[in-house]
């Protein structure tokens, strides 16, 4: 059986070029005792993948050269050897990488039910993005019902869920997104109270108009100038959740916050969050998110593209904004 995989062959500087990866085709190796073979149906494309390419200190080791590109995945167990964590026919989600087949003993994998939700949701709203949003806004953001919440990257996989959870909990929610279509999506479909189009209007003026009394929670997915603008409007005891900084991932020199003194003046806090720290509570998050989906209180959107050979073009959509919701690549032929 042949397996197509995207292999990392060079470390990029700035925005990765297509030559960062190489598409290879090899035989699937024979299974050892305790291993099972997963036919990957979909893989998750996330901004964090850019950081995993850097050979620098981070919350997770970088992808080594000549290894399969790391990614979340969801697929079906089609073969087992000996006593295994899952059985043939089970659908599972884990770290399968950008490839069509994965051989694993099951570390980091969990069983999913395609009858309860589409497979793509298990790498989106019911996967790492959904759990990042859940713990980021509720635990790190310490959300309260009367909070004014500002979310950047609001039409993305994490930001769209953050805003909806905040609305469910009674907060006022303003989203920052790029373009009219995305702004209409978060207000008309997701129920945000307002939207700021950073591509076509002043973010400063937009925040001032939508948050006249200031911000209690800023959930940041982009960093850069937008973070600086948000910090101007912090209220007393405000919380900034640093989830990502996609505007900076391809910069050789990262732009840090210029307005950090507002943290002192407003007794505010800025805290980074990584979803892996909450692994012991994933079950709690999935239960709540699944319930809200079934009740129609939460909407999930996956932007799906096809073909492992189209990985690079799809990956670029993370950075050029040409996507809506969770970016997914179908790799099952």
**What is the radius of gyration computed over CA atoms, rounded to a whole number of angstroms?**
20 Å
Q: Judging by the overall fold, what is the CATH architecture of the largest domain?
A: Alpha-Beta Complex
Total strands: 15
Which blocks of ≥5 consecutive residues have pLDDT under 50?
Answer: none
CATH topology category name of the largest domain: Quinone Oxidoreductase, Chain A, domain 1
Helix content: 10-25%
Q: Helix segment count?
A: 9
Q: How does the helix and strand content classify structurally?
A: alpha/beta
Oligomer state of the chains in this structure: single chain
Describe the structure.
- The longest helix has 13 residues, at 128-140.
- The protein is of the alpha/beta class.
- Helix 2 crosses helix 3 and helix 2 (128-140) crosses helix 8.
- The protein starts with a strand and ends with a strand.
- The mean pLDDT is 95.
- The chain has two domains: 2-124 and 300-330, Medium-chain alcohol dehydrogenases, catalytic domain (Quinone Oxidoreductase, Chain A, domain 1, Alpha-Beta Complex), CATH 3.90.180.10; 128-276, Rossmann fold, CATH 3.40.50.720.
- Strands 3, 4, 5, 6, 7, 14 and 15 form a seven-stranded mixed sheet that branches.
- The protein is built from nine helices and 15 strands.
- It is globular, with a radius of gyration of 20 Å.
